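Thread title: Can someone regenerate the structure for this chain?

I was given the following input by a collaborator and told the matching structure tokens would be attached. They weren't. Posting the sequence so someone can regenerate them.
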Amino acid sequence: MPEQQQDQGQKKGVLKGIILLIPGILLCGVVTVISLGVQAAEERVFDHPYIEALVVAILLGMAVRTAWKPAERWRSGIAFSAKQLLEVAVMLLGASISFAAILASGWLLIGAIAATVVIMLAVSYGLARLLGLKTKLAILIACGNSICGNSAIAAVAPVIEADGDDIASSISFTAILGVLMVLGLPLLIPLLKLTATQYGILAGLTVYAVPQVLAATVPAGIVSTQIGTLVKLVRVLMLGPIVVGLSLFVARRRKASTKAGPAKEGAAKAASISPFKLVPWFIIGFLVLAALRSFQLVPDVAIAPVTKTAAILTVVSMAALGLGVDVRVLSTVGGRVTAAVTLSLMLLLGLSIGLVHFFK
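Best answer:
Regenerated them for you:
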């Protein structure tokens, strides 16, 4: 009897926890539907979304949060959407990546893309720190600028345990500059006399999101679009190793800080560390799905729905992040964040322009 009562109590506790999540998740869902509607309207008018749904979601969420502070009944669902749903989305993205397709593009180009990402990670992080930004915010800006903008920020944030204010700050300004890049980058074709191949590489290296790469390269022709998309996908693939590396670094720092504490506590913590705790579960899932995709164990018919699900979950998470952000926090770091992102992007653009001249 006591065991049955305990089981019933646990089931009731789980059910109660799920019920508590519903209001916040539904609120994030409403913001998501509106954001997707805005993106769909952009696609009908401009053929491509210049401001993605995830950017609209976080800005709309911030607007709601500015006008209304959610009560306790909303917060657990919002927090769940911002963290757990985002982790699921990152894991699902692995199913859309094939290592074989990346290797087919050639080692010289792959090496150039990888070198650009690594160099800009170091430069962007160092620049952000010189401007006085916090370590976690500097990491978010560096990853967003160097890899794939908002998606990289969203993937790295749970690994380094960044707070909502830092995530919103980095995403907001990165999103603005990403749109400006889409609008201004085609002007460099006549100014620098770039070939279709060169412009495609330049767009793939500098524009943040895959949809934005399409928007920036379609006016230049199909060759630029294909090459730009390929380069961008290789750049996105760098997200996996970077996130794994960051997770190992964070775990090592935790272990070091634990050793500095009481010996008994340190021994208990050390005993609980396993390889699966060093790397977050969703990153392991990401790499497993990517490997399955590479060995053609994930059917092609499943890729589109999986990718779409990941995209929608990401928008839901961005809505949750926006709903948890106090706009007044953005005003305190806005100038430094803007300077860090802008200068990093200018350096990335300069490095990429120099690089494309080797690919005629």
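DSSP finds 18 helices and no strands in the chain.
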